[in-house]
Amino acid sequence: MRVGIIGLGYVGLPLAVAFAEAGCEVVGVDADQRRVGRLRRSESDVEDIPSERLRAVAERFTATDEYRALAACEAIVICVPTPLANHREPDLSYLVDAATQLSRVLHEGRLVVLESTTYPGTTRERLLPILEESGLAAGREFSLAYSPERIDPGRTDHTIRTTPKIVGGLTEECRRRAADLYGLICDEVVEVSSPEVAELSKLLENIFRSVNIALVNELAQLCDRMGINVWEVVDAAGTKPFGFMRFDPGPGMGGHCLPVDPFYLAFKAREHDFYTEFIELAGKLNQSQPQFCVERIQRALNQVGKPVRGTRILVLGVAYKAGVGDLREAPALKIIRRLRELGAEIAYHDPHVAELPELALSSTELDDQLAAADLVCIVTAHPEVDHERVVREAKLVLDFRGVTRGIEAANLVRL
């Protein structure tokens, strides 16, 4: 089978490699010519896909920026970004552009699947009409389906192969064809009755996490005022074998889904004169958590008689989660910007992120900054970092991730 992938980022590239490893001929299309050039040299810019895996499938994977290369593909999967616009409304410009260009090369009998995260109704109301500009009728002359991506960057225990794949088709035949496609690379395919069910299921998964992270972050702020150790509270509650799912507090949410998905559903709900106040409140609280962390830094410095202005602060970890270099919506970036506005001198160390060009910063070695910093903030707890050493050698440590639980030291403060 020849499979086309539109968008070769965090979602599309792993998918392309998975299909190529399954024996398919894969054509990947991306608008970024520099990325296409790297992929043609089998150089990966996605951490979950080592360059060695690209080299292993080089004969079955072709990267290009030309949509006409998709004309011979039996199935095409759309994996383009769907960010939020300035007013936290969905920006579907990448999807509209991809669909418009695809419609010009779409042939009868093809299967088109959308994987980009979006609001319920996008596949039917936005994608379908554009694809039908080809002169072909969806559900009769070509198949259309939605299948949400479920990638969690950096994970090795749950992969494309082992994570159940949800598919919802415009018709039963569309659904069957999409299920057959993903059956090539997934151990389990979950078929649902419509694209809308599949679209909303993805939002529910991430909104569930967003709401519970907001809850535990709010609890952390309350515990801070009450003088109660929030980590001990979470550890204790986590011993219950039923009715409780553990979530840990932190400096805020990051990544390509969690900070965005609640606002997608809120946008769509307003069209139906329904206001998702509970969901939006969770999103707002998580967005404000980095500011709480800055206030916590100010108080920690005040307790040792130091102002923020002129203080040397070392930020440990700037990626949005441990073990990866993904900076999308990373709370560390918001914390750094605010601390700079307050006059702090900032350095950072992250084994996965060498440069922050927009902040004119480069990752420094721990040996160079650890003892010199007035305050070390653990924002992302990368496993490569020896946090016991950090507490032992730093003047003052503020841990936003709870990674120092079990360590007692006069110079250590936790969220």
CATH architecture of the largest domain: 3-Layer(aba) Sandwich
Strand content: 5-15%
Largest sheet: 8 strands, mixed
Query: Which segments are poorly predicted (pLDDT under 50) over 5 or more consecutive residues?
Result: none
- Helix/strand-derived category reads alpha/beta
Q: Key terms for this structure?
A:
single chain, 415 residues, alpha/beta, Rossmann fold, 2 domains, eight-stranded mixed beta sheet, 38% helix, globular
Kindly describe this structure.
The protein has helices spanning 12-21, 33-40, 51-56, 93-103, 122-131, 172-183, 195-226, 230-237, 261-271, 277-302, 331-341, 366-369, 387-393, and strands at residues 2-6, 25-29, 61-64, 75-78, 111-114, 143-146, 165-169, 189-192, 312-316, 345-349, 355-356, 361-362, 375-378, 397-399, 412-414. It contains 13 helices and 15 strands. β9 (312-316), α11 (331-341) and β10 form a beta-alpha-beta unit. It is 38% helix and 14% strand. By secondary structure, the chain is an alpha/beta fold. The strands form 3 sheets. The protein has an 8-stranded mixed sheet with strand order 3-2-1-4-5-6-7-8, with helices on both faces. It has 2 domains: 2-193, NAD(P)-binding Rossmann-like Domain (Rossmann fold, 3-Layer(aba) Sandwich), CATH 3.40.50; 209-414, Rossmann fold (3-Layer(aba) Sandwich), CATH 3.40.50. α4 runs parallel beside α5 and α7 packs parallel to α10 (277-302).
